[in-house]
User: What shape does this take?
Amino acid sequence: MAKPAGGFLARDFTASIVVFLVAMPLCMGIAIASGVPPEKGLITGIIGGIVVGALAGSPLQVSGPAAGLAVIVFELIRDQGLSALGPILILAGLIQVVAGIFKLGGWFRAISPAVVHGMLAGIGVLIVVGQFHVLFDAKPMSSGLDNLAAMPGRLLGLDPSNATATELALVIALLTIGVMIAWEKFRPAALRLVPGALLGVVAGTLVAFLFGLDVTRVNVPESIAAAVALPDASIFAKWLDPSVLVAALAIAFIASAETLLSAAAVDKMHDGVRTDYNKELRAQGIGNLLCGAAGALPMTGVIVRSSANVQAGAVTRLSAILHGVWILGFVALLPWLLREIPMATLGAVLVVTGWKLVNVTHVRELFRHHGILPAVIWAATLVIVVAEDLLTGVLVGIGLSLIEVIPHVKRLKLGVDHHEADEHAAISLSGTATFVQLPRLSDALDKAPADKPLTIDVRNLAAVDHSCAELFREWLARRRASGASVTLLGADGRLARLAA
Assistant: This one.
């Protein structure tokens, strides 16, 4: 029996408020971490909510500025200037739209989970070591290694007996972090949807305001329209620059991968409509194109805001749209309130966010289920992201993933046969299941009927790499959690362990 539309509206309205409260400090903090004014992140949050929310292929995913792109944007602005960001984003958005039109969305899911988690961990390290300096009311250095090397000096330079802006900013930052950690650990069940980042920002801002502390605060314009910087005629000349083309490809690739992997994670959290990956890719492309035209930050689908959306009970994309409306209303009506927020408080929010991205649990799970190679891929991707740059780290990770393919390079084909009767369904797999064939395998599993017992015959499957094995594991867990029956015929080795 269908639920009344009024029930959907009430749940989406409530969820939108929760997502708005989560998104506000992150939009501003990620902008600052990217080396741009905070209002640039707010514009991206507005576009991600209102425009991409309306067009999205993933009904419960929320889009906005992402920590995963903060590092690459910081480096782009450092090397090419802020004026290059708009043309790069417009081009990146067009690439995403074209990729969605040509149905390339599924291929982004073929990236090894070890590469993705290693990339996110590397980004987390860079955010932590960069924003560490913001805690002291200072600006980050130009590279991750420089930030890391300067950390001991920053601590040794403190003078507890002399309360300068540096020491006061650190007190505010530590208060913010303390409130966030304490809330995550001790929050009552009735208030589980109240975000710790919001409370941390409120605590830091109140203390700075009440005691009149002389610390650097957020600077936002009186009107959000004043923050919109439309491109001029020089945009066409910039598109002829090879470095701009490479940067656009890098942002399109990384933003698409992060978005679609986030969408897959969101799908695991609810039982509603599944993601249309190509539609989502087109929506993200339109969003990034508009962000480039407005001179804002790039966007992706983001798991923190999306998971808050699902946990708050959202049912349709209306919640994502409304959260963008609330950001617009807040920025338009209350800019004076934003100008009371200390920069150190937003830096503290980003330090906690970055720390959470360095999730060692992921690599432990990969090692436990799939052996040493995925762990090596994860570690290598992380190290190269920190020591060199994001794109190089991802490419090295993908290159290492090819090691599993080499023994099967002459027989990479995956055969998929469907059989369906009135009371039973079966899928027969043959050949090799490597990340090259992951989109085909994913489509086959997703199309299996959920209302019938299913048998998967893998007796003719010669090999399975860790990317496809991880897909199998997650799909089996989701299928069995829904109460559906699944039987694997001929599973041995890695698949047998996963089936158990």
Notes: The mean pLDDT is 89. The beta strands are 62-64, 300-302, 414-420, 425-433, 454-464, 486-489.
